[in-house]
């Protein structure tokens, strides 16, 4: 659906050259929610803006539904862009227009007749649950409601792809969740492909099917969200996963855990193994004691993921055997202190 092929973007400023995106290749499937995560300056915005050619790649190609975007004439590109909706961190609404007028604006540009525009705007207002707000101005709306207008406007021309540029970064956690639920619902109902960029693993965890991790302009890791949570490879990915799997209490307690007694071990459960009485079996099978220090269950888009921090005491060789057994069951194990 979206093929990003060896894309590079360099910016020249003050005689300096910055490589914002450095040889990135990604293949995004039709109907999936694909997330790109990275810290500030990683190149996420530049990358997502190359998907609709708001930024032109210095090298490489972006192929959308089989069409090389950079090979299109200005007119053909404008038409193609109507099928790529975009929403932004700061909503980018027209402040002098009402909710309905904002939503009708892209239809006006596309030359859709007035009656049809009105009808479509009403449908979209219902979809994003803004009934009753159609004649209000953006300044009269909450942040979440403004983003709902942004989403409705982005969907006006029935796009195949929705690009989300840090769409929830300006919102509080509860509103963030309601906007993420809406995006998930739109993806499910309309089969829309969604590409989002974020610096929050919570966003990836809640709605994405796959994720790419960016650092210094490069994609350093890519995979299914469930796999990335279970087996993060790169240091940066591990840090992002920790954002949601390790509570602040675990992180601060980790510094204090004493090593004088046994080992402190973090176990990560996902899928089938999460439903099994693994710890009670462990105590029965091995000559060890287990003390539960912390536990947390996180919901992913379609599954759940649990972390449990335990203190294991006993003979070192027996602890090692018990840990080996946990690993053989598919439990992710990390020794935090020994
Ligand atoms: N128009 C531009 N001119 C010059 N440098 C730019 C331009 N746009 C981005 N950059 C630089 O490219 C690098 C990547 O920026 P980009 O905005 O894509 O990163 P990001 O991951 O989206 O970060 P943030 O979340 O802070 O926006 C940064 O070093 C940035 O300063």
Automatic annotation (TrEMBL):
Pfam families assigned to the protein according to its UniProt record, in alphabetical order: ABC_tran, NIL
PROSITE patterns named in the record: ABC_TRANSPORTER_1, ABC_TRANSPORTER_2
One GO term (biological process): amino acid transport
Family listed: Belongs to the ABC transporter superfamily.
Matching Gene3D superfamilies: 3.30.70.260, P-loop containing nucleotide triphosphate hydrolases
Protein name: ABC transporter related protein
GO molecular function: ATP binding; ATP hydrolysis activity
Source organism: Caldalkalibacillus thermarum (strain TA2.A1)
The ABC transporter domain, residue ranges: 2-241
């Amino acid at each position: 659906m979206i093929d990003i092929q060896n894309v590079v973007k360099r910016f020249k400023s003050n005689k300096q050259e910055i490589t914002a995106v450095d040889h990135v290749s990604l293949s995004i499937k039709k109907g999936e929610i694909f997330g790109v995560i990275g810290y500030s300056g990683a190149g996420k915005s530049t990358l997502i803006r190359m998907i609709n050619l708001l930024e032109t790649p210095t090298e490489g190609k972006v192929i959308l539904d089989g069409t090389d975007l950079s090979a299109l004439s200005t007119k053909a590109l404008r038409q193609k862009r109507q099928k790529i909706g975009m929403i932004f961190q700061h909503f980018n609404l027209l402040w002098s227009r009402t909710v309905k007028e904002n939503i009708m604006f892209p239809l006006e540009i596309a030359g859709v007749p007035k009656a049809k525009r009105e009808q479509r705007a009403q449908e979209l207002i219902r979809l994003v649950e803004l009934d009753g707000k159609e004649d209000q101005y953006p300044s009269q709306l909450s942040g979440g409601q403004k983003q709902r207008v942004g989403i409705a406007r982005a969907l006006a021309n029935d796009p195949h792809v929705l690009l989300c540029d840090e769409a929830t970064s300006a919102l509080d956690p509860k509103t963030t969740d309601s906007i993420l639920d809406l995006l998930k619902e739109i993806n499910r109902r309309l089969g829309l492909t969604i590409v989002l960029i974020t610096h929050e693993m919570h966003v990836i965890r809640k709605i994405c099917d796959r994720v790419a991790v960016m650092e210094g302009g490069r994609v350093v890791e890519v995979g299914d969200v469930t796999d990335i949570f279970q087996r993060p490879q790169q240091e940066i990915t591990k840090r992002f996963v920790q954002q949601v799997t390790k509570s602040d209490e675990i992180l601060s307690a980790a510094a204090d855990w004493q090593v004088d007694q046994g080992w402190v071990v973090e176990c990560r459960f996902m899928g089938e193994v999460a439903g099994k009485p693994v710890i009670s079996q462990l105590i029965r099978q091995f000559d060890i004691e287990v003390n539960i220090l912390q536990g947390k269950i996180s919901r992913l888009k379609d599954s759940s993921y649990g972390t449990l921090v335990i203190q294991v005491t006993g003979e070192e060789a027996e602890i090692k055997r018990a840990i080996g057994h946990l690993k053989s069951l598919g439990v992710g194990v990390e020794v935090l202190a020994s």
